Amino acid sequence: MSSWLPLSPGERSVAIEVLVHGPLSRTGLARRLDLSQGSLTRLTKPLIESGLLVEVAEAGAPAEGRQGRPSQPLDVVAESRSFLGFKITADTVYGVVTTLRSDVVARLDRPLPGRDPARVADLLAEMTAELAEGRPALAGIGIGVGGLVRERAVVGESPFLQWRNVPLAELVQARTGLPVVVENDVAALVEAETWFGAGRGLDRFVVLTIGAGIGYGLVLGGKRVSCAEENRGFGGHWIIDPHGPLTPDGERGSAVSLLTIPSIRYQIRAATGRDVTYEEILAGAAAGEPMAFRVIDEAARALGTLVAQIANFAMPQKILLAGEGVGLMDVAGDTVREAIRGRRHPLAAPVSLETKVSDFHDWARGAAVLAIQVLVLGAARA
């Protein structure tokens, strides 16, 4: 993957600011980066000459009303490069094509042909060929996997895929000839929301995901906090109610036991003998079905407690709740918000909680953003 090289640190800062927040006027750009107009002119000139940045018409301004070239906003050509993103689940691979600004322009899903790494890599190569057809300047591939990923290349451990020490980036790169970056799927989603989504421009930001598992990502100083333990499944050991349900996954009363889709389904199956879907459980709770209502009400209070604890300790400007389990908010959002208020100081500012109805293509888009970052930053960001 060719990167934005050679660029000085100052030029790169300008280019990233325009990519993430643009189009931007020169005055606005100078203010955001705390630069003088002279310094900004010096930094932007080579970027414009190389075609990395372009001058665009100011929105709503007629051509004859412009005040000369310096007043024209600067932007990137988002369609100049294409990126592929893949999200691998236990039974399906979800793929997307995005622009340089992470807008999804194509999607493709395929069933997983088993869990042998070589066969999975073959499938990713086939999907790459199909998605890349007719796309401009394909620049790289990002892959999101649930589990522990080392050096953005090796899947150290993935319970969903039953993998250990799989060099996935190497396998896919050998088959496609394209640069490949692999990351934990939650980390990829956090990066995407930080650069292009709900966390854009925020100093302190949290992503909390509920679905097959519990995911957590923390952004401080506008950058995702990366640590060795972030992909170790903290939710299985974050005890919300020590007297809560005991499920096959997670400690008794943990976030996993109370909130994940498999655990909620397990509780209903253990109590009724019926195997029902998560959507059916939510519908039952909304209709007042006693068992479904009890389990979902308990899950909602657990979610409110978890959000309040995160807000109390991390003090984020916003918490984004995402994942395939967020339908809980549609049925029991009031209970969640009541629990948040009950576990915060009475004078504490309200928690800015944003819910994102997402599917696995959003996770795939997050993986594509990893590839965008490699291009823009010049190296994989740990």
TrEMBL record:
InterPro entries: ATPase_NBD, ROK, WH-like_DNA-bd_sf, WH_DNA-bd_sf
Taxonomic superkingdom: Bacteria
Pfam family, one: ROK
Protein family (similarity comment): Belongs to the ROK (NagC/XylR) family.
Protein name according to UniProt: MarR family transcriptional regulator
Organism: Streptomyces cellostaticus
